Amino acid sequence: MNLREGFIGAIGNTPLIRLARLSEETGCEILAKAEFLNPGGSVKDRAALGIIEDAERSGRLRPRGTVVEGTAGNTGIGLAHICAVRGYRCIIVIPDNQSPEKLELLRHLGAEVRAVPPKPYSDPHNYQKIAGRVAAELPGAIWANQFDNTANREIHYRTTGPEIWRDTEGRIDAFVCATGTGGTLAGVSRYLKEHNAAVRIVLADPMGSALYHWVLDGELLAEGSSITEGIGTSRVTANLQDTLIDSALRIDDQHCIDMVYRLLREEGLFVGSSSGINVSAAVRLAADLGPGHTVVTLLCDRGGLYARRLFNPNWLREKGLTPPV
Ligand code: PMP
């Protein structure tokens, strides 16, 4: 029998999908790891598992304890599933501008959802800071702290990186993805660079994020804004710290949306906005590298989480974007 042990055993080992049309167009192999096929529906199932298991091992999280997190949604969804399996209470602090589908799903999963107004990281009412305070005030609670808890990048170093290396048989020229906490990029890139220092690591950044300039000239500087969720940041998190990044690409919302629709119409893949940023960046990178290279990226979550936004032409128009025809 080839079994996986419960929800937790089903996390990881996601397929690496060859994107046929984009590969033909670029003359490169454009490969996308289908993280939306994790059992909670996103790449963040891995971080949620890494963080909870680390807290259990260290004794910080005890039976019937509480897990508190500030999250744009997907980490909360992963945590809520795992808390259900392991018998923990789950409290999620989320900015109230995130997609209604994510908030609804979190409630269905049994998490206690506290939706708060979005505030910059420097503000004491920022959702991450509120989560830290809620955990500190509640006996038996831990703060998952996905941004600065390096158990996040560790699990990508132990699982996502090795899976990419195994499935490409080491034939990979570049890895590109957007970052929220930085856990995925940091963990995957460390594993790949250890196995072949020549693998090019590229950060894909939405508008409104400060990392594009940080990678190119060392200065945290944000320009513009973006409708993407879960990616882009104003600071260098502990997870991102010390990551070897060779270059950065900036992708605007219209290119992101166009790619999300192309992925659905040409490849049959129904994914969210960070996947649009990632695949757009992979195609740009392939054009820079020239034919004959292998570029790997991630499909982070499903389009259904954003159905009323990304797949609603009126919403897109309100945001100044042109719905693809
Ligand atoms: N895509 C989506 C949809 C996400 O929710 C996140 C995490 N917030 C990311 C990408 C970025 O992953 P990481 O936190 O590992 O940088």
Percent in helix: 40-55%
* Adjacency order of strands in the biggest sheet: 1-2-10-7-8-9
**Oligomer kind:** single chain
Please count the beta strands (DSSP E, at least 2 residues each). 10
C-alpha geometry? globular
Uncertain runs? none
How do the helices and strands line up, and which of them pair or pack?
Layout: H1 6-9, E1 16-18, H2 20-26, E2 29-34, H3 44-57, E3 66-70, H4 74-86, E4 89-95, H5 100-108, E5 112-116, H6 127-137, E6 141-143, H7 151-167, E7 174-178, H8 183-195, E8 200-206, H9 211-217, E9 247-251, H10 253-267, H11 273-289, E10 294-299, H12 307-310, H13 313-318
Parallel strand pairs: 2-10, 3-4, 3-6, 4-5, 7-8, 7-10, 8-9
Antiparallel strand pairs: 1-2
Helix pairs in contact: 3-4, 3-7, 7-8, 10-11
Task: Name its key features.
alpha/beta; 42% helix; globular; Cys_Synth/Cystath_Beta-Synth; four-stranded parallel β-sheet; EC 2.5.1.47; 325 residues; binds 4'-deoxy-4'-aminopyridoxal-5'-phosphate; six-stranded mixed β-sheet; cysteine synthase activity
